[in-house]
Amino acid sequence: MAALPEIKLLPSQLVNQIAAGEIVERPASVLKELLENSIDAGASQITVELENGGMRRVSVRDDGHGMDKQSLALALSRHATSKIRSQEDLVNVTTMGFRGEALPSMASVSRFTVTSRARGAEHAWQLSVDGRGHAGQPEPSAHPVGTTVEMADLFFNTPARRKFLRTENTEFQHLERRFREQALAHPAIGFRLFHNGRAVHNLNVAHSEVEQLRRIGEVLGKEFIAQNMRIDVEVGDMRLHGWISRPAYSRSQRDQQYFYVNHRFVRDKLIMHAISQAYRDVLHHQRQPAFVLFLDLPPSRVDVNVHPGKHEVRFREDRQIHGFVSQTLKRSLSDTRPGGEVDNGLMSHPDQAEPGQGVTAFNYTPQPFQHNVPLQVREQIQSLDALYSPQDKADATPAAVDHPLGYAIAQLHGIYILAQNQRGMIVVDMHAAHERISYERMKAALDKD
Question: Which of 76, 200, 226, 354 is most deeply packed, by most CB within 10 A?
Answer without folding.
Answer: 76
